[in-house]
Amino acid sequence: MSYNFILSSILILFIFCYMILLNYAWQNRETPITISYGLGVLSAFFYTFGYAFQLLSTTVDQMMF
Question: How many domains in the chain?
């Protein structure tokens, strides 16, 4: 297994953690800070998802997609 695959796998595990945190924030959405926290977790989710697949790419053309 390559180094990039291991790093990407770790990031995908963090994506699942972000999904759990986002679910918890959605269940407690009546508190005032939860909406801001949920949006922050959602943006971190998308960033981590994109970066994990960028690490799996082997060429610059694949990374730019």
Answer: 1
